[in-house]
Design a protein that fits this description.
CATH topology: TIM Barrel
Radius of gyration: 17 Å
CATH superfamily: Aldolase class I
Distance between the termini: 19 Å
CATH architecture: Alpha-Beta Barrel
Number of helices: 7
Strand order of the largest sheet: 1-4-5-6-7-8-9
Number of strands: 9
Length: 239
């Protein structure tokens, strides 16, 4: 199961995402870590993914909420593995890179079962698709995790259908491998509403299979590639 932390409103406005946007999100619920931990225990979950909206309004970008939630789950369900799917913890300008790195490392230091941060699309399309995010900033997130602890599996994903070419996809996969990213998800972008970016192309299942095979050849140890694949698709299953 996947839990979305820190409320239903994101401080960014990505062109693909259906999460509500706003500059004044709801206050953090101090009981949220306990509530999530109770849900994990009640459901008897063996593997959990913790993700969140981007909270550039918070002094720490939301790192403390991740830390408290991980601690609460481990207290109640010590056998449950926890994967994190984090934002980039950039926090807006001015915000030196060192601060962003310290936030990423603070979550990685909790030794999640996997650290996931999505590129979402190829480098050329980052602007219209991921407003407020940067391609190399996201690669840095994955690189910093490995520099802190090479044993933590890292993961990233791309949504296909925004107008990218196969060559651009393969370049993105090579860039991910250059920062030692271990795991990969490739899925089809589906337009949430008419207010979101239109689908430029529907990639076929056969094309997803071929891209998945190419990703494995590049050295990814776990690859999920198909039209309906999403970031947490079969996340707790080993290949």
């Amino acid at each position: 199961a996947t839990f979305l932390l820190m409320g239903p409103v994101c401080t960014r406005s990505c062109g693909f995402c259906q999460v509500d946007k706003g500059h004044a999100p709801m206050p953090i619920d101090p009981k949220e870590p306990r509530k999530v931990a109770e849900s994990v225990a009640l459901l008897g979950l063996r593997y959990v993914v913790l993700t969140s909206v981007a909270r550039d309004d918070l002094p720490d970008g939301g790192v403390n909420v991740f830390a408290q939630t991980i601690a609460a789950i481990r207290s109640q369900s010590p056998g449950t593995e926890i994967e994190v799917l984090t934002p980039d913890f950039w926090g807006g300008q001015p915000d030196p890179q060192a601060k962003q790195r310290s936030r990423v490392e603070a979550v990685a230091a909790l030794r999640p079962a996997c650290y996931n941060h999505n590129l979402e699309t190829v480098e050329r399309l980052q602007g219209p698709v991921r407003r407020g995010a940067k391609y190399h900033r996201s690669l840095d997130v994955l690189r910093w995790v490995k520099e802190l602890d090479p044993t933590i599996p890292t993961k990233s994903g791309l949504m296909l259908g925004h107008g990218e070419t196969e060559a651009e996809i393969l370049q993105a996969l090579e860039d991910l491998r250059s920062v030692n990213c271990d795991r990969l998800t490739l899925g089809q972008y589906l337009r949430p509403s008419l207010d979101h970016l239109p689908v430029q192309r529907y990639w076929t299942p056969a094309e997803f299979d071929r891209l998945g095979a190419l990703a494995r050849e590049l050295g990814f140890t776990q690859v999920r590639s198909g039209p309906l694949v999403r970031s947490s698709y079969h996340a707790g299953e080993a290949d």
